[in-house]
TrEMBL record:
InterPro entries: Met_Sox_Rdtase_MsrA_dom, Met_Sox_Rdtase_MsrA_sf. Belongs to the MsrA Met sulfoxide reductase family. It is an enzyme of class 1 (oxidoreductase). The keyword Oxidoreductase applies. The gene is msrA. Residues 5-154 form the Peptide methionine sulphoxide reductase MsrA domain. This is Peptide methionine sulfoxide reductase MsrA.
Amino acid sequence: MTIEKATFGAGCFWAVEAAFRQVKGVLSTSVGYMGGHFPDPCYLDVLSRITGHAEVVQIEYDPQSVSYDDLLAVFWDIHDPTTLNRQGPDRGEQYRSVIFFHNTQQRQAAQQSKAKLQMSRKFDRDIVTEITSAKEYYLATAEHQQYFEKKAKHQSKADNFAQ
């Protein structure tokens, strides 16, 4: 089996990761930071806006089960690519809309997908999503990985205890 990587930033990485974990053909996900200038950042470094990193989800997927174009469709669907350095209430460059490509085919697919979406006029404003080469990836700590799943498990245990 061939395994490929894809890396996307679309706001808070917790929700982005949760969305991609639902996609058939996605083998694994992790959250972390990419695209900055500060070596080995931690969550508080990135949150303080001194590192230049984006919160990202790195995906390992089976291209025989899900295409990169399919992953791009999920990416465009789960956030607003017209807001600069912001998603919902989250503000700052760490929440920017960005596609980090890992090879020439991904770069071309991302550029074509962005152009097609812009021409569709689905959005009233221009798409501001960056498309740039993948940089060094810094894995976030364990507490941030699969955050929503962990939170749901803890919540259901608390609910069971309360009954």
